[in-house]
Amino acid sequence: MATAKLLLLMVLVAASSCDGSAWRGPLSRLRMLPTAQYVVEAAAERLKEDVSSAPLIHALHPLLGSAGDFSRRAGVPCDSWRLAVETYNKRDWTTVPASCEGYVGHYMLGGHYRRDSRVVVDEAVAYAETLNLGGNGKEVWVFDIDETSLSNLPYYANHGFGAQPYNATNFDEYVVNATAPALPEVLELYEKLLSLGTKVMFITGRHDTEKEATIKNLRSAGYHTWEKLVLKPSSLGSSVVPYKSGERQKLVDAGYRIVGNMGDQWSDLLGAPEGDRTFKVPDPMYYVG
Ligand SMILES: [Mg+2]
């Protein structure tokens, strides 16, 4: 309880110290109120959570969420960097900026990542419910796997949340363990789609040599059935768009209608045929072109 009060006090002090220096004149007053209000509300929300029951996967304990001053640590606007990543304005980056490791960690482990995922999935569910399914079993929803259906956060939490250079050997060892949990919101969408009569397919950048581990992991995470699981032939190059769009074209040629397409990378979604609608779930930890 004492810790909770101390946290709230820290938040109030932080909120009151917002100087709005990025805005001048009347704008600074406009900015102050909602910012302070949001920070206090976010802290109150966290105080209500029973964090002690949450699985601890990293010592980095989320305090204020990514909306707090962590985003401006060392003067680096990590929140702006993340927005540019999500909107595909920032491309071809290899690692999270070192000064944003803490920001991305708090974003992923705090409530922000899950809230953002919730918004995406709520939109997808609302869209799916409007679908006029033909009842011929040919309507399919395509899911990516890593950071979409399955979350590799337990791995990335131990590798700088994307601030450390990607190590294929280490990551492949993790994949073989088949222990990645589902991203809960996406698993919820998966169940909803099945209940609506939509078939589900997975098209992943994982190599076909990892098929067994991937099937095992999907099942243990709660994905109990699917129409098709497509893994990337090891002989193919690294470019994702031609591979994934080519696999989607094969589905269309086989008479399927791709009603939805969801991934954490733009390369999961771009390239005809994209599907009737695309949905991007957040991922500030790595870029796959
Ligand atoms: Mg992915």
From TrEMBL:
<dbReference type="InterPro" id="IPR010028">
    <property type="entry name" value="Acid_phosphatase_pln"/>
</dbReference>
<dbReference type="Pfam" id="PF03767">
    <property type="entry name" value="Acid_phosphat_B"/>
</dbReference>
<dbReference type="InterPro" id="IPR036412">
    <property type="entry name" value="HAD-like_sf"/>
</dbReference>
<dbReference type="InterPro" id="IPR023214">
    <property type="entry name" value="HAD_sf"/>
</dbReference>
<keyword id="KW-0732">Signal</keyword>
<dbReference type="GO" id="GO:0003993">
    <property type="term" value="F:acid phosphatase activity"/>
</dbReference>
<protein>
    <recommendedName>
        <fullName>Acid phosphatase</fullName>
    </recommendedName>
</protein>
<feature type="signal peptide">
    <location>
        <begin position="1"/>
        <end position="18"/>
    </location>
</feature>
<dbReference type="InterPro" id="IPR005519">
    <property type="entry name" value="Acid_phosphat_B-like"/>
</dbReference>
